[in-house]
């Protein structure tokens, strides 16, 4: 670099004479030097008059806004919803009228408990919130990846969240429910028990946002043009299929890549592999509601798909990453109260409370009532109203009229329109004012049991192990035993396994149920992840561990087989410079071995050259790579030169491992479609 290109401090100068590219202040004034503040002499004090410095620093000092009180860590992406089946007989919502029409969307996935900087694979519920920019206004479906909630009445929400967040005195634990306060609250709130089964299941450690379901949770209403109402529950079904990781893997992913879920989403969309979900509706009427075993206004209950089938009406495709994380993902403001004509609320007390909380929270978070002026929150259809002023007002009403009724005729601004305007469903309401919980909300165990018996044995084991882990983190015996007293009302086997895991020899008395549970609800296969496995490796990732001199034909065959499937292949090598294969071609590395542990892949293949095979066998990260892949029930392919490593890692080959040549790359892919070799877990853990 010449002296001209370097500043006095030796830093590279990046100057331009192009007006378009010229850096300016926020006021638009061109800036000549952005690296040195204005001083009285080269070594003198900085001058207060330096408007360039002051403006830059002032803005930086105010960059942060309060993080969301829950769901602080999230990841947003653009997409669109395409209607596959019109439902005018059920709803007059504009978005549900024309088959093939695409409505733009913005979806934000999140964890609940952790702060903005926490890790992605916490055991936690995932938020799944979608804003539909419909032609009749924004509709926000603010759901989770679990179809039930911990509490029945929104007045308990601050306590629930306080209990799971870091304790107020010590400021930890971060992003976890495995502590006394959470389980204390839950065990004193039996309504939460059903949701804890979901939370202790593998649903709470999804492999990726792309491989999880979403649920609107509450019962809403669909209202048609004649004003007739049906009840509805909304479902998102991932076309990619369901998949989760195992707990030991989750713990390690959090260290290896705390951004695992957001990176996965970014990479998939960046590669053009757009994730899709079908929007399903469960529709039912008053007669069903009156005969259903539980109250349809109780958000701690599901309606099994076997009882009311899920009808698919459209597809959500996520096809664009954000341009700017703060402007879009951070500033997006979801509100459950954002509904459109044709969709309405019910009396679910949790939903009613949410309708207050979301609007209220945006005021605090985004600093004023004009957050709808921020592009990500603004409707994409025309909008006209007389709301004005306030912080950061971007579009105040034009002209002299800002009120109604007015007599200014054509110049009088927007007018009401009873034809297309929102009409609340005229539900009959009467009752005595009282602070009570309906008796019909009192059964807290029946569906918890139903969830448990709907799982495969592997999944049941995981649930028991998760309760054991979490309760083992509770220091107070009374809390552990109180939880156990509830699990005894859910299922004997579960309670026994957890008791054994905790080392409890004398079982407590079962908790006294508010209402006797129904013990003969049938299992519902839709509740299991493994019973609904996709039998595909598309969208998944193979970790291809290569060393110097690896057989090029095997590498190429694996790369081709997995690419044809629609899967990703990441190359892992001993050095980041990559390797030269047997035919002299090279492969660049995506990861050096200690930066790309097997926990970030769905299956692994070890294609090694003879050279240095013994040295690699002694490498600890390489040993961890295979031993973790094995312990996490992943499929493993290898070539002979990898044998010393497999031996050093103590791998006992089984049907989930296979020696691979160029001819059987396809066979390995087919095996990988099962995603995990669960029989190994049975053998390792239970025999
Ligand atoms: Fe909530 C955020 C989902 C109950 C109060 N919630 C928030 C987000 C999701 C949910 C996905 C993140 C939205 C985003 O990405 O910006 N919440 C749920 C579901 C619930 C639920 C599915 C039960 C069915 N929430 C719930 C209750 C209350 C809140 C009962 C309070 C009465 N939730 C909030 C909040 C948040 C929020 C404090 C924090 C940030 C925000 O709203 O925008 O208002």
Q: What report would you give on this structure?
A:
There is one protein chain. The protein is an alpha/beta fold and 687 residues long. It folds into four domains: 1-63, Cytochrome C Oxidase, Chain J, CATH 4.10.91.20; 74-150 and 189-373, Catalase HpII,  Chain A, domain 1, CATH 2.40.180; 452-531, Catalase, four-helical domain (Hemocyanin, N-terminal domain), CATH 1.20.1370; 537-686, 3-Layer(aba) Sandwich (Rossmann fold). The protein is 28% helix and 15% strand. The chain has helices at residues 51-61, 157-164, 180-187, 193-200, 247-256, 260-270, 286-291, 325-330, 349-366, 446-453, 457-472, 477-490, 492-502, 552-565, 613-617, 620-631, 643-648, 665-672, 678-686; strands at residues 74-83, 102-111, 126-134, 137-144, 214-215, 220-223, 229-238, 276-284, 311-321, 343-344, 541-546, 568-573, 579-580, 586-587, 591-592, 603-607, 636-638, 657-659. Strands 1, 2, 3, 4, 5, 6, 7, 8, 9 and 10 form a ten-stranded antiparallel β-sheet that branches. It has a six-stranded parallel β-sheet with strand order 15-12-11-16-17-18. The chain has a two-stranded antiparallel sheet with strand order 13-14. It is globular. The termini are far apart. InterPro entries: Catalase, Catalase_AS, Catalase_clade2, Catalase_clade2_helical, Catalase_core, Catalase_haem_BS, Catalase_immune_responsive, Catalase_large_C. Belongs to the catalase family. HPII subfamily. This is Catalase.
